[in-house]
Amino acid sequence: MKRKGKLIIVSGPSGVGKSTLIEETMKMRDDLCFSTSVTTRSPRPGEVDGEDYFFITPSRFAEMAENNELLEHATYVGNSYGTPRAYVEEKQADGWNVVLDIEVQGAAQVKEKEPDAVSVFVVSPSLEELEKRLTGRGTESPEKIRERLERAREEYKQAHKYQYIIVNGDLHAAAEELSAIITASHCLYEDRKNYLN
Question: Considering the domain boundaries, does residue 152 fall inside one?
């Protein structure tokens, strides 16, 4: 019998390195896939439609939300983001652990619908380090960066709702932690009790 994949929620403020952490963890595992989100924001340089995100219009996004085609959806810094439900369920049924890179509002929606989802909150070693990373991107104005840092402080107040915290200072060590969390999630009593018969 093929085991059902886990749903892994990864949240944390913009700039803590969630995408890089997920990519690094995927290199370590052959049972992990990334859920591609839909968004109404414009692509950043180098982003590919259908890989990084599905870039869609606000009207299509509203339609998907209305038709319950999204596992979660939220508006963040003026843009909408969501997780296509069918994609996630199909991958889990095929045995894949599906990782969602979503912010705290979306994570709360997923946990409500999928209480067994594993939740991980990623932080940088300090807010100063986070500011340095955001500035280093060179993609946003100082006002946007201040907005994101303020948002980070607000998001930190939600971290207690997550099962795990990863401090992303050393990327490889952080990826090993995420991989260990995924492995442990398959060793829960509920997943192994059939061996006791």
Answer: yes
Residue 121 lies in a domain: yes
Structural domain range at position 17? 7-196
Spatial distance between the Cα atoms of 132 and 7, rounded to a whole number of angstroms: 31
**Cβ(123)–Cβ(165) below 8 Å:** yes
The candidate with the shortest Cα–Cα distance to 120, out of 157, 163, 175, 156, is 163
- Residues 31, 123: Cα–Cα separation, whole Å: 25
CB 30 within 8 A of CB 36: no
Asked if residue 99 lies in contact with residue 78, where contact means CB atoms within 8 angstroms, the answer is no
Q: Which residue is it, tokens 């290199």? A: 27
| pLDDT tens-place values along the chain, 197 residues long | 478 999 999 999 988 999 999 999 999 999 999 998 899 999 999 999 988 899 999 999 999 999 989 999 988 789 999 999 988 999 999 999 999 998 898 899 999 889 999 999 999 999 899 999 888 888 888 999 999 899 999 999 999 999 999 999 999 999 999 999 999 999 999 999 989 98
Give the number of other CB atoms < 10 A from CB of residue 181. 19
Q: What is the domain-level CATH number for residue 80?
A: 3.40.50.300
